[in-house]
Design goal:
Strand content of chain B: 25-35%
Structural class of chain B: alpha+beta
Radius of gyration of chain B: 29 Å
Helix content of chain A: 25-40%
CATH architecture of one domain in chain B: 2-Layer Sandwich
Number of domains of chain A: 3
Distance between the termini of chain B: 61 Å
Oligomer: heterodimer
Strand content of chain A: 5-15%
Structural class of chain A: alpha/beta
CATH topology of the largest domain in chain A: Rossmann fold
Largest sheet of chain A: 6 strands, parallel
CATH class of the largest domain in chain A: Alpha Beta
Distance between the termini of chain A: 39 Å
Number of strands of chain B: 14
Radius of gyration of chain A: 24 Å
Number of helices of chain B: 4
CATH superfamily of one domain in chain B: ACT domain
Largest interface: A-B, 58 and 53 residues
């Protein structure tokens, strides 16, 4: 049992109700005007910007990531006197990914800031990323003064229009008197129900405008809705689970977001139900538990895909049945009755029909389900079958003498050298798959990656956000390891400057194959090996680049160099980059080709 | 395989030095595969009886906050999720700050369900639902026809309870209102004169009698807010 109270993240015990009672920050912005009933207060303020900052402080925001610029300057000026720590990033994309990862690790909304025009458009990738992965985040963007909006003024862009489809909701602040309330509402909305990014566009005249209206403390949004599922529906689902012969749990990212890992573990263990996860669900259930079949889908384990394919009852919790998980929908768990727990009614039967829809918060509904299932399903034979598949289809790789260093080996070396609470961040591509396959995750909020959007370049800024979050939570001893590809690393490596300046202790392992490796793999499998625009052929020397930034830079080519380099990188007090030159021809396996049947995954290249 | 580290190098999951152990794993055709299938909507089906849903026409009514961008949010949602929409109308209600959006869509039952659920997620949407089949529906059409035979145009206009809004030397502009089939019939009849231009509002709809137009909506009398229960 690894999920003891001592190891639980602090956020996992605190629900929305407790948030409302959180004391306001005890700094200059809270004064003797605190009323006797203990309601948090803010202010006094004299400008819209001060109102914005007061609202953020009252909501509990501790850290912001951003980049300065003309239209956002008034807000930055108000931050000068604030308790909120601001981390200046090299690029707005770095700011938004760092804020996203901060939120994932801390379990509270990330906060990022950018100016109008290019500042705002540089946030777009990260906002879309947070939207796809349901990450709570608030983006604040400067805007040209209200009178100039619509006139194509300098650094004007229609931020509201551009971010409308990739935010949970966005707000155009139109008055200094109400801008603080708007920001407070947007912060709370981002974490209410199904989390997601929100944005407030802040015209300069509004933030500069005079006001003495202190923002009202924002009520935690969504607390007026019942987080539990309909009891009759729970009973019906419980009967289906009790009578199942081949039940499988499928835990998604929603389990972690709802801080429901303890409930999920109790439900599966109490009922002896084998567990699969989605990629965002990694960490919800410990991979060293014998019930755990790891994660399913395109590059998931063969045994997870076999179990999902042959299940007669699939209990999906906090998952949206994304196509990378399901493969071809016609062959996805084709004989399973589906119990689907989700807080977002629109996810019910969107991709996979739910026979037993349970709409509610995962934490609540899992507790309801655990209570309602009175007879453990008779699944001993099925558990044996799953264990047999685990033996038959292990995750494995070969290390022949005549082939270069294997990337999987590097992942395992870092895993062995670090504790279970280590936070792993990644970019997107082959290295991401190996980092998820060959590391044994046991705790929630230790796997931080870009799933739905698949954003190359996520890894380094995410490591910065994760490090700052861990430090803010008093977990300075936790390691943060970023696995990156050479292609991903090149997209955002300028953020190394931030890690050095802020003295952030992170280890970056570049699994360098001088390819956009996943594209190369697909070209070999589906495009007759025509390596169009996937082969870099030349890469900078990342170890020297790291040194130029002021970080520790190492280069590794051989197996015997791996362990010492891992140790040196982890021991180094600050950012370290290890450039691992790995086998360029190594492929990610197993693999379910796009739209294929999960049960027909290819275990080796010749099965593709 | 796991933990077998007999070779010179290898981590916990490597088949040290050997050929990939994956070669030894059963190929897809050697594995058991279930016979069941799902259709495109993710519903389990008997593969022998492919149960495709037919699409149908539905009227979706939404009560929304009348704030800047609300129409863009709704239309953006419809286009992004590729909902098949035939018309969309929007207008104020008896309550200040509330508008009603009426959409006619052509979708399968799961598709209609998704439209309603996705609309409901938009923050300015107060209530949304499908208008029941026997609701009153109407559309307004303006059309301009050639004025070669004014008397005949006038006769057809009368026949369909239309009004002549403008009569010039070369064109006559007529207003028609009614449900879809009446409008379609009228347009067929006007076609003989040569329709020069046409503008249609698309259908709007209200439920009959005491039934709320949007399920869950509480119809108000004049001045009273129409709200969700």
């Amino acid at each position: 049992m690894s999920d003891t109270a001592a190891q639980r993240r602090p956020d996992e015990t605190d629900g929305a109700d407790e948030r409302a009672e959180t004391d306001p920050p005890t700094d200059a912005t809270t004064d003797e005007s605190t009323p006797p009933d203990g309601e948090p207060t803010v202010g006094p303020v004299s400008t819209g910007s001060e109102s914005v900052v007061a609202a953020l402080e009252a909501a509990g925001a501790k850290t912001a990531f951003g980049v300065q610029g003309g239209a956002i300057m008034p807000v930055y000026d108000a931050l000068y006197d604030s308790s909120i720590r601001h981390v200046t990033m090299a690029h707005e994309q770095g700011a938004v990914h760092a804020a996203d990862a901060y939120g994932v690790v801390a379990g509270e909304p990330g906060l990022c800031m950018a100016t109008s025009g290019p500042g705002a458009t540089n946030l777009i990738t990260g906002i879309a990323d947070a939207d796809m992965d349901s990450d709570a985040m608030l983006a604040l963007t400067g805007q040209v003064p209200t009178d100039f909006v619509g006139n194509d003024a300098f650094q004007e862009t229609d931020t509201i229009g551009i971010t409308r489809p990739i935010t949970k909701h966005n707000y155009f602040a139109d008055a200094a008197d109400t801008v603080g309330d708007t920001v407070g509402e947007a912060f709370e909305l981002s974490r209410a129900g199904r989390p997601g990014p929100t944005l407030v566009d802040l015209p300069k005249d509004v933030t500069q405008g005079e006001t003495d209206e202190t923002p009202a403390p924002a009520a935690p949004a969504g607390t007026d809705t019942d987080p539990s599922a309909d009891p009759d529906a729970v009973e019906a689902a419980a009967r289906a689970i009790e009578s199942a012969e081949r039940p499988v749990c499928l835990f998604g990212g929603g389990v972690i977001k709802a801080a429901a890992s303890d409930e999920a573990r109790a439900f599966a263990r109490d009922n002896g139900i084998p567990v699969t996860m989605t990629m965002p669900g990694i960490g919800s259930f410990p991979e060293d538990d014998e019930l755990c079949l790891s994660w399913g889908g395109m590059h998931g384990t063969g045994y997870a895909n076999m179990a999902i394919t042959h299940a007669d009852c699939l209990i999906g919790v906090g998952t949206r049945f994304d196509d990378r998980l399901t493969g071809g929908i016609d062959t996805f768990a084709p004989e399973a009755e589906v119990v689907h727990v989700d807080v977002d009614p629109a996810e019910i039967s969107k991709n996979v029909h739910a026979d037993y829809p349970l709409i509610g918060d995962a934490k609540q509904v899992l507790t309801q389900l655990t209570d309602a299932v009175r007879e453990t399903p008779d699944a001993a034979a099925w558990r044996e079958q799953c264990a047999e598949w685990k033996e038959t289809y292990p995750l494995t790789y070969a290390t022949p003498d005549d082939e270069p260093l294997k990337p999987q080996f590097v992942v395992e070396a870092f895993d062995e050298a670090t504790d279970d609470d280590t936070i792993v961040t990644t970019g997107v591509g082959q290295h991401q798959m190996w980092a998820s396959q060959f590391w044994t995750y046991t705790e929630p909020r230790t796997w931080v990656s870009s799933h739905g959007l698949g954003t190359m370049g996520y890894g380094v800024p995410a490591a910065i956000g994760a490090r700052v979050a861990a430090d803010t939570m008093g977990d300075g001893d936790r390691d943060v390891v970023c696995f990156d590809g050479d292609g991903s690393f090149l997209m955002t490596m300028q953020e190394l400057s931030v890690a050095v300046r802020e003295e952030l202790d992170i280890a970056i392992a570049v699994l360098n194959n001088e390819y956009i490796g996943m594209v190369r793999q697909w070209q070999d499998a589906f495009y007759e090996g025509r390596h169009m625009a996937s082969e870099y052929g030349w890469m900078p020397e990342f170890d020297k680049l790291a040194e130029a930034f002021g970080a520790l830079g190492l280069r590794v080519d051989d197996y015997d160099e791996v362990a010492p380099a891992v140790e040196e990188a982890l021991d180094y007090d600050g950012p370290a980059v290890v450039d691992f030159h790995v086998d360029p021809e190594e492929n990610v396996l197993p693999m379910v080709p796009s739209g294929g049947a999960n049960g027909e995954f290819a275990a080796s290249e010749d099965q593709l | 395989m796991s933990g077998d580290s007999s070779g010179p190098v290898g981590g916990p999951n490597s088949a040290a030095g050997a050929e990939p152990a994956a070669d030894a794993q059963p190929a897809p055709e050697e594995r058991p595969q279930p016979a069941g299938r799902r259709n495109l909507e993710g519903i389990r089906i008997d593969p022998a009886v492919e149960a495709e849903h037919d699409s149908r026409r539905a009227v979706i009514s939404a009560l929304v906050e009348d704030e800047p961008g609300v129409l863009a949010r709704v239309s953006g949602l419809v286009s992004r999720r590729q909902f098949n929409i035939e018309s969309l109308t929007v207008g104020p209600t008896t309550v200040d700050g509330h508008s009603r959006i009426t959409m006619v869509v052509e979708e399968t039952d799961p598709g209609i369900d998704q439209i309603e659920k996705q609309m409901a997620k938009l923050k300015p949407v107060i209530a949304v639902g499908e208008v029941s089949g026997n609701a009153v529906r109407s559309e307004l059409v303006l059309l301009k026809v050639a004025a070669d035979d004014p008397a005949a145009v006038h006769a057809v206009t009368e026949m369909y309870d239309g009004r002549t809004l403008d009569a010039g030397p070369h064109t006559i502009t007529v207003q028609l209102t009614g449900n879809e089939s009446k409008i379609d019939d009228a347009l067929d009849a006007f076609d003989q004169f040569g329709i020069i231009e046409i503008a249609r509002t698309g259908q709007t709809a209200l439920a009959r009698g005491d039934t709320p137009t949007v399920p869950g909506e509480k119809p108000g009398t004049a001045g009273e807010p129409t709200t969700r229960d």
